[in-house]
Amino acid sequence: MRTFQRRIAAAIGAALGVDPAPLESQFSTPPDRKLGDLAFPCFLLSKELKRAPVQIAGELAALDLGLEWVSEVTAAGPYANFRFHREQFARQALAEIRSSGDEFGCSEAGAGRTIVIDYSSPNIAKHLAVHHLRSTMLGQAMANIFRAAGYTVVGVNHLGDWGTGFGKLLCALERYGSEDGLTESPLSERDDAITVLNGLYTRFNNEAKDHPELDDEARAWFQRLEAGDELARARWKEIRQFSLARFQQVYDRLGVKFDEVIGESFFEDRMPVVIAELEEKGLLEESEDAQVVMVGEDIPPFLVRKKDGTTLYGTRDLAAVKQRWDTWHFDRCLYVVDAGQGLHFRQLFTVAQMLGWECADRLEHSAFGVMRMQVDGGWAKGRTREGHVVLLEDVLDHAVEKARAVLLEKNPDIEDPDAIAEAVGVGAVIFSDMKARRIKDVNFDLEKIVSFEGETGAYLQNTHVRFCGLLRKSERQGFDPAAGAGAALTTDEDLTLLQELLRFPEVVERAAEEAEPSIVSQYLLGVASAFNTYYAQHRVVDEAPEHAARTADRLALVDRVRVTLRNGLRLLGITPLERM
């Protein structure tokens, strides 16, 4: 509705001699359609014009604003209510959506602003597990949404490829690797390399509980890695390259793409610069033989360097902030990381403020609830080190298998069932993570995730398929959906549906502003529901010659609903299908 609101605001501004820009966002839908089709509260104008809102509403009702699609303006207390000329409004609404096509939903709201989004960020030498789904897909959807809203987006995969954890892995590889032949041949020659590496890591952590001296060995290995030890570096490099290749297989299935893939190791030679700045500004202190920044009374110290001289991921995160600011001069930098890391980001952002960095107030923790697994009869966050993990690849495979079975049961003659099952199954997994506010915790329930009932990705895909099928059938019957101009779309239900479609660009803008993909998800569910209600009330295709114009217009409306649903699904990373 932004286009129409902008036109009314411009007309009001010209008539009253005020700036129309602040007025564009003031409109709302009247509580009762009998009052009008769009309501404008006069409170903002009252402050500027120094007149009562009721008086201004009366003045607007008496004006001729020169808008051919506005048939009447009436005053109701402090509100000016605009009633549309249905035929003119429908014509312009259909034309706007059609002309936008693939770009419908896009805007220039974020033009000139840059957003850096840090998402997915798995640790190398481990599988992408189901709990990685949240950061990965929420981040990808955010990137898509921000781009649609006109922002310049830099999507960063900040890999965990450095730190004491890799000292543990190298130590485990040295101790146990020969038992599995893992140190005897290249990882690329083994299909089970990640599984075996993960098993070694889990074994090490379990044994370290009874033998704490193993942790000292692990720290020594990480010291060797930081010092450039040839064997440590060679093994680390091989593990990193192989891990990236395996990650990419899953990313490709999910449609996930990054602009930058930078591991923590990238900041190895950048950390000394940051540490030097901390020292220079008197922020670095000694505490229990470690170097820290005392962040505040209510926040624990920010650990910069341990007593053995090795660095931590916090230090690397601080170096990453500086690198991102120097490289992209972002307006916002979002960290799509679970809410459990909230303290870390409070520390990180506070240290950036203490350093006086200009970007400090542009850093945001886009927190999400954790993905919890069934562990010992209860729900707990999956942890790779304890072996409580469900592989994301296995979840996708299971969802696709179930989708294929359902599809073949409903349509044994379906063309290319494998490709369609892949799109439906993967879409179901993605949407399961998108329909609720990101801050909510999610209990991983495989059956619910791949369900094809209720508010699911499969439901939205199937609704899109229905639109495509209806349009194909109408063309075979001799109708041309492109011929519908909208003159016959004059009912309240026509207007309600058109207004809902025209909200789409504003929905995308709000989803970007709040970094909240569920705003788009819920909107799409609402559009699908609204059309199903409309379809139950109105016959779309009527073969009677006297109703040809109405049929063409309603088919055009179906086409615009299809475009909206298609574009919205793409923003979420879900493939809109034409056949199922």
Termini separation comes to: 32 Å
CATH domain fold name of the largest domain = Rossmann fold
Low-confidence stretches: none
| Helix content, binned percent | 40-55%
What does the radius of gyration come to? 29 Å
CATH top level of the largest domain is Alpha Beta
Biggest β-sheet: strands ordered side by side in the sheet: 6-5-4-10-11
What does this entry look like structurally?
The protein has 580 residues and is an alpha/beta fold. It folds into three domains: 2-84, Gyrase A, domain 2 (2-Layer Sandwich), CATH 3.30.1360.70; 119-264 and 328-386, HUPs (Rossmann fold); 395-435 and 447-572, Isoleucyl-tRNA Synthetase, Domain 1, CATH 1.10.730.10. 51% of the residues lie in helices and 11% in strands. The strands form four sheets. A five-stranded parallel beta sheet has the order 6-5-4-10-11. It has a three-stranded antiparallel beta sheet with strand order 1-3-2. β7 (284-287) and β8 form a beta hairpin. The relative contact order is 0.11.
